[in-house]
Please model this.
Amino acid sequence: MFEQSIATLAKKLRNKDISSVELTRLFLARIAKLDPQLNSFITVSEQRALEQAAVADTLLQSGKGTSLTGIPVAHKDLFCTEGTLTTCGSKMLHNFIPPYESTVTSRIQQAGAVMLGKTNMDEFAMGSSNENSFYGAVKNPWNLDMVPGGSSGGSAAAVAAGLAVAATGTDTGGSIRQPASFCGITGLKPTYGRVSRFGMIAYASSLDQGGPMAKSAEDCAHLMQAMAGFDEKDSTSADKPTDDYLANLSAPLTGLKIGLPKEYFGNGLDPKVADVIMSAVKEFEELGATVKEISLPNLQLSIPSYYVIAPSEASSNLSRFDGVRFGHRCDNPQDLLDMYMRSRAEGFGTEVQKRIMVGTYALSEGYYDAYYLKAQKIRRLIKEDFVKALEEVDVIMGPVAPTTAFGLGSKTNDPVAMYLEDIYTLSVNLAGIPAMSVPAGFADGMPVGLQIMGNYFAEAKLLNVAHQYQQHTDWHLQTPNMAKGA
Amino acid sequence: MNWEVVIGLEIHTQLSTKSKLFSGAAVGFGAEPNTQTTLVDLGMPGALPVFNKEALRMAVMFGHAINAEIGMTSVFARKNYFYPDLPKGYQTSQMDHPIVGKGYLDVVLDDGTTSRIGITRAHLEEDAGKSLHEDFQGMTGIDLNRSSTPLLEIVSEPDIRSAKEAVAYVKMIHSIVTYLGICDGNMAEGSMRCDINLSLRPKGQKEYGTRTEIKNVNSFRFIEKAIYTEIERQADILEDGGRIIQETRLYDPEKNETRSMRSKEDANDYRYFPCPDLLPVVLTQEYVDDIKTSLPELPSQKAARFQSEYALSEYDASVLSSSRAMAEFFENANDVVKDAKLTTNWVMGELSKLLNQEQLDIENSPVNAQAFGELLVRIKDDTINGKTAKDVFQAMWNGEGSADEIIEAKGLKQVTDTGAIEAMIQTILDANAAQVEQYRAADDDKQKKMIGFFVGQVMKASQGKANPGLVNPILARMLKG
Amino acid sequence: MSIDKQDVQKIAHLARLALTEADADQYQHSLSSVLSLVEQMQSVNTDGVEPLSNPLEMTQRLREDVVTEENRRDAFLANAPQAEAGLFLVPKVID
Model:
């Protein structure tokens, strides 16, 4: 049951083969049994889940609801959920119960989905391994000694292990795609502005974007139907009608023009990963697509540009965590300054403090032009590379990450090395285009994700391309051993 | 040493929108703490700002009123610093691309001279909350009702050279924003607050001296006094060979002195950068032009019209147009009586006197313009004379009724019946035969001096009700014999 | 590009983060390595390139000036570390 698609489950719910309460209990039981090994949830909201399931069952009884009605999902713990603890993976918010609901979770709830709980993540979405969580590292279901990727590592691990049908994630520099790749699931980072950021705890406002993480492109499309769309509460939300993400999933790929950026296949790419990607590309050729080499010449610069822009915005976004109105406050502050300094030093982990300081430095007097402004100019060069490339091709393909999941603790001592691993994902956020990670095979027993990037607001196209691939492959149907037989 | 004072002002005007600059929470003064807040104003995690349309329109109106360039693309920036009444840890403001660019104002001083004060810019920003220092377990209480209230910060060039000029400039800004209806102008409630940048330099020197900034002065009188005391303080230091420290100071009206704000001395690096949660505000020429054509009459325009339309003196016109409410009162009263000179004299005389005595704004005058005009009509049509009118006005002020009701009730109507006046005069002439003799013997010059005695007697006998316009010629005729 | 420990303490103060001596040593090292990483930007010629702060380059939408929010003070104060009489409490602020 746990490995079935949203469409299948929706049909079973509608046919009363199973009730939402039964389905929810099944997933709650799986979480209780398997999550102690994975640590993918920070909060399991059993009561809320069962209440929502009961409501869903009533709706289904009367033949109402959507394809998500009664489907148990999980939310990354940076979406504010009214009445349910929202920690953002941080000690800072260990006691924060929002009195409001994010637009994303609210829309998914409106569609009738059941919230199982809140998933683990790198603190404030800063990290690529999920080792930066105050609530402990998450393990990769394919190999418990490996990281699940980050920052949406909890969502990726939970979906891969069948602890939730689907989940939400957020992607600032690869935080949906890289864990999706490492855990062998399908993830979509939509165009910047396609999914509302209201109620999403900000890391870097001009890069953050929420998106679906699920077993297949089709499941992602079901979530996008609910998540995507204009929100008047978010000034950066695109006031543009959404596509029907399900309608064109089956469109043939004949004549699809695929670009392979040579910069994605250079030094640093694990040859075994390269092999997986190239065989996936061949598969597309067999489906009628044509392939050409393209160039994204400024790719390398996405790393410095990102690691200035994101920390700069973060340094300001995270100033509100000051121990005054919510969250952690140190014991017995001597005075106001002491309250600020200690509350923040105690509440934030090392990586978060480091990025706050990098950003503070980059914005400070005398350095602004050399860092922040320079990074914004380079950001334009990177965007222009994509715009030019996408005039020639329909989609761009490449690896999501240079390697498969790495060992827990293997890179914690060299964070800059970890930053370099983000090379294939960062530029997409800087440009604001949509991109997916699609399971494309295995290297040394660990999943490899194919990255598919498209033009602004071409989510439906990306889902169509990924879905067609998944109709001809079964990589996305593989289940890690630990998830089986539970 | 002969010092020249150099002053630049930053005036924060609170725009009178219904809702906040970036949220749908209500704006208002005096509500229970933290009851006019939403997650945006409280800086809650995941909260996002959306810009208020009306605040934009008001800022553009102001830009037109000061002859300024309008920022066709303006950008909100974050000013980062930590303070408990600043919930997000940054203030959303405008830095490199303000909504209103360079403009100017011609300020008319008391002595009738005009000086042009340059305005560097005016930008939109959100207000902070309030720290309440009453003792809450020895702690400070934070009320965020004011957080995200829209402010227009108007920054002048350092063109001001005296306290008087500073006050005249602030009064002019006050008058403009209230005319435009973009600010209630209530300084006591903090709707207009002024930061004063002040430095001294030896007369004739080009370079500016080191300046201090006096924060948050909120009355015309305090602005004037703060400037005088700060000039004195700086001059004392400089004349003793000392140096001025660039710092933020606070004016204490009780002690009439400025003192250093130590807590703000912490050298700040505000790390301004464009707010990524807000996008550039881009205006169309049509939008900007539409606002310009629909602008209400401004004080200087009104003053010019008062001079030409009502033949008022420059001084009278500028006093009557200094506030929109005063000008409206004048025009409404004059519509009733249709005598601009009479109306001017009475608005600037009796009405202003009573308002001042009771420290009332003209908006709160117990006698409205219509009733006031009706009183003036009774002067104009000789129902009462000017002296009686003052008593009637006082009675109206006390709520005793309309002018006509009071005149009727108190029997104050002038005696205009010539027969009755003649009879009254005859009685007086009979009772003062000796004085009549003297009068008749005197030459013209002396007669002119002596007639006052008889007029006084008549008025006394009539209890002030005899129409002086009638008394004089009849008396002159009857005295001739 | 490297920064010294004093720089680190200055930045930490601006960001209101209390650092121990040991923390400062560690951050001096890690901040320096990040700054070296981003230093490669300086070799790129960006003359005449407009900075890009929002990928879609949209313009600001305007909200009607209407009050849409009601008073939810108690719900918000429930998360406050310390509150009294409807106020958030902080250690004494000295002006």
Remarks:
- Chain A has a mean pLDDT of 97.
- Residues 21 and 462 of chain A are 33 Å apart (CA to CA).
- The radius of gyration of chain A is 21 Å.
